[in-house]
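Researcher: I'm preparing a figure for a lab meeting and need a structural model of a single chain. I don't have an experimental structure, so a prediction will have to do for now. The sequence is pasted below. Please return the structure as tokens so I can convert it later.
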Amino acid sequence: MRKLFSYIGALCLLLAPSHTLASHISGGGRNPPKSLSEKQVIVLKKITSYLRVKYPKEDPVEIVAIAMVETNLKEGLVSHTGDYGVLQVNCKIHAKRLAKELGLKNCRKDMFILEHNIDAAILILNRFRKYRACRKTNLYSCYNGGQGWRIVSQKCRVQHCRNQDCRKCNRPARYASSAKKHIRFLKKKYSHLFIAEARSMER
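Model: Understood. Here is the structure written out token by token.
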């Protein structure tokens, strides 16, 4: 590649040379596309199939929506903040927990495996579900900004909104709004894919 890699990109290239890595900012897929590409549909089906087998109580539409907000269903992406894979799991924050609870010893490498990435995301979501601040659709805000996102947003507004620079302070709330948009999009245009996957698993 001719592009200059950041430090983290270069490090990840050494750890996982078989993947095509790209910089990505979490929350980049703010609005749903008009339609999904063939590659996106393939990833959608992979996620849904895995969830049906290992996490039957999880709503696949919700998980796919989060993946769309994070990476637009593109695998092999790394953000400048250390988020990996289609569901952008942060290895700086979660590596120790993933090693302890899932046996994933090399977060930066393991998160490029879709199934491991899903396992990690479900673990993180289940942890957040224990907090009052993460109930219902606030779960999406917590996935983006942690269980203390409200307090952090409030402090941010105090510090920055005087200069009318409030947009970054509302990032977790905007993230949740984006997730809900993607859920509506998937239910409206692609509900048949989720139904088809569910029926195929019953056979």
